[in-house]
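Bumping my old thread because nobody answered last time. Still need a sequence for this structure:
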């Protein structure tokens, strides 16, 4: 797997296909394997040059002790983009990956041809999502960890999740891995190392991405939000406040659309990327 050092951190990435540039940005606690596992990278590579990468602290990339805000992630992306010679890119970001994509679009609009979000929560819009901390996906996580005697608390707390997993004795870690199965085991094993970083707190920091900054994003944005998403108020806000925003609901999904409804999610991403790629084409010369 190729690697590149950017912003003082070694990131691992993969590329496939030819055509307009698309960059896939995974969520916090995930890694680029999600795009291969769901088949999205292969599906898009028939029409686009697709780049996926492991965010700092995730997958095979370096794990520095600090620097996990969306602002730092946007700078990582800017330097990665330059280092591997991408053109204006269409960014596809899931959850926190979408936050980083929007932050990059706000800071470096010349680099971004468009953004496709998948069920992203923005700390700068926390005021419109008062139930964020008690989202269903956290409740399910809390119940699962409770089966091995770990209390994650009632509200979302990534730092607590990382530390609690790191502190698990081997027998209870094994029991948790058995509950999550083969695919979930890889996700679970990424958590303990993050306990030694500021990631848990950083990913919930506004980091300069205020509501005003989000509303001022110039490149076109597509908000793909799941039917049972806890963030539908954010979806409506984006549609109302961004001048070039289109929203679509992915049926039968509740935060992991690429897994909950793989066919529907892949179809939606491909359709919107095709449209955004056409929008970005220069007008033909007269005559």
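Sorry it took so long. Here it is:
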């Amino acid at each position: 797997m190729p690697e590149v050092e950017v912003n003082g951190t070694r990131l691992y990435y993969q590329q496939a296909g030819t055509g307009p540039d698309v960059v896939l940005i995974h969520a916090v606690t995930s890694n680029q394997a999600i795009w291969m596992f769901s088949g999205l990278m292969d599906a898009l590579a028939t029409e686009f040059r697709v780049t996926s990468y492991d965010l700092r602290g995730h997958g095979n990339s370096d794990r520095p002790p600090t620097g996990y805000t969306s602002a730092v992630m946007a700078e990582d992306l800017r330097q990665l983009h330059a280092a591997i010679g991408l053109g204006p890119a269409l960014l596809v970001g899931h959850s926190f990956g979408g936050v980083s994509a929007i932050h990059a679009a706000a800071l470096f609009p010349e680099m971004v041809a468009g953004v496709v979000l998948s069920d992203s929560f923005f700390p700068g819009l926390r005021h419109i999502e008062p139930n964020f901390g008690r989202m269903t996906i956290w409740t399910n996580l809390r119940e699962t960890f409770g089966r091995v005697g770990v209390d994650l608390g009632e509200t979302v707390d990534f730092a607590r999740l990382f530390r609690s997993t790191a502190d698990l004795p081997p027998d209870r870690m094994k029991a948790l891995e058995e509950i999550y199965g083969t695919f979930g085991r890889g996700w679970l094993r990424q958590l303990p190392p993050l306990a030694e970083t500021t990631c848990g707190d950083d990913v919930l920091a506004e980091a300069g991405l205020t509501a005003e900054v989000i509303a001022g994003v110039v490149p076109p944005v597509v908000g793909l939000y799941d039917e049972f998403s806890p963030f539908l108020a954010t979806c409506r806000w984006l549609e109302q406040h961004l001048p070039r925003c289109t929203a679509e609901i992915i049926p039968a999904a509740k935060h992991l659309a690429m897994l909950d409804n793989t066919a529907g999610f892949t179809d939606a991403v491909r359709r919107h990327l095709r449209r955004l790629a056409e929008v970005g084409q220069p007008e033909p010369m007269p005559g």
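The first strand starts at residue 3 and ends at 6. Let me know if any region looks off to you.
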